[in-house]
Write a structure and sequence with these properties.
The protein is built from 5 helices and 12 strands. With about 350 residues, the protein is of the alpha+beta class. A 12-stranded antiparallel β-barrel has the order 1-2-3-4-5-6-7-8-9-10-11-12. A hairpin with a 5-residue loop joins strand 4 and strand 5.
């Protein structure tokens, strides 16, 4: 827990110094997810996540070595479906960790009918593009990380000890125990609907990814109220569990709006359940998993003061596992505290 907190604090400090150094527009966001934030208050499945995100429309970040590398991938892959602008409108960098547990966390043994323990520590770079007419856009992300590290386990144990909760006893059986590199590339095409008004916005998104989550799907997204952030930086449909980089906006003024949406996806591979190249004590096969998944979410965003913004979201997803103890609906809540800097 201490190492993760220190990393987040350092990331926040670095992002703050960069922002105050004269970036055109930038934002820092701290995100915390937990299944206890949902009305069901469970302690299982996607159980928790934390991330810090730095987002900016500055040339320095858009033209950084990592961003240009992702841009080359974008042009090679996404460019074949439609012409992308040479430069993105916004780039985000995110560091975070999240994890999954079965239902009976006090058991040291393996319940073969439930999900395995699994976790990810990651660094993600996201780029957003918008068409000349502003009626459509693209969002891409490249995430690199490691499965099976002890960082999330130690953090969860520290939190459970501090709150008097049960200690999870099965982390020695997690997917890729000891660590294994992993990667995911995702791309999404957004259509901003003609009926959108300043205080009522709709869009349809078609998305796909390859890597530790391999899937494709479509989503309908809505928000209504006092809105100032741009459409191409509001992407709750692209949150992959704890990963939020495509949804942090560096541009905008005061906001006060409700939002929601739904998505349907076909998932071909999930490393958090099936493992990767290394053998793990507990893995599920493709035959154990549902291919078609549905997800719904509802949230609220409010500007507190001085470009400081707070958001809450509740997400519910259909069961990932066909049968047994693991056949259940997933639910979790998330909080995002963000601060904008520079011109808007």
């Amino acid at each position: 827990m201490r190492s993760l907190s220190l990393a987040l604090a350092l990331g926040f400090a670095v992002a703050s110094s960069v922002s105050l150094a004269g970036e055109p527009a930038s934002a820092i966001a701290l995100s915390i997810d937990n299944d206890l934030f949902a009305p069901t208050r469970t302690d299982r499945d996607y159980t928790a996540g934390v991330a810090i995100t730095y987002s900016s429309n500055s040339e320095a970040l858009n033209n950084s070595l990592v961003s240009r590398a992702v841009g080359a991938i974008d042009q090679g892959l996404v460019g074949s479906f439609g012409r992308l602008p040479d430069q993105p409108e916004n780039t985000s960098v995110e560091f975070g960790a999240y994890g999954f547990t079965p239902e009976e966390i006090t058991e040291q043994g393996i319940d073969r009918s439930d999900r395995p323990y699994s976790s990810l520590v990651y660094l993600s770079t996201s780029r957003s593009y918008q068409s000349a007419g502003g009626t459509s856009g693209w969002t891409t992300s490249l995430t690199v990380g490691a499965l099976g590290l002890d960082l999330f386990e130690h953090s969860q144990n520290a939190i459970h000890k501090a709150t008097g909760s049960d200690k999870p006893e099965g982390w020695d059986h997690q997917i890729s125990e000891g660590g294994e590199p992993t990667v995911r590339y995702s791309a999404a095409y957004h259509q901003y609907l003609d009926g959108s008004e300043p205080g009522s916005k709709f869009k349809v998104t078609y998305f796909g990814s390859v890597g530790y989550l391999t899937e494709f799907g479509a989503a309908l997204v809505f928000r209504g109220g006092l809105i100032s952030s741009p459409d191409n930086r509001f992407n709750p449909e692209l949150m992959a569990y704890g990963e939020r980089a495509p949804s942090v906006s560096a541009v905008g003024g005061r906001e006060n709006y409700f939002w929601g949406g739904l998505s349907v996806k076909a998932r071909a591979y999930n490393a958090f359940l099936q493992g990767q190249f290394r053998d793990s004590d507990h893995e599920l096969s493709a035959n154990d998993l549902n291919v078609l998944l549905a997800e719904v979410w509802a949230g609220y965003t409010h500007t507190l003061w001085d470009n400081m913004e707070l958001s809450y979201v509740l997400r519910v997803q259909s069961s990932e596992i066909k049968n047994g103890t693991g056949d259940r609906t997933l639910a979790w809540g998330g909080l995002v505290l963000s601060k904008r800097f520079g011109s808007h």
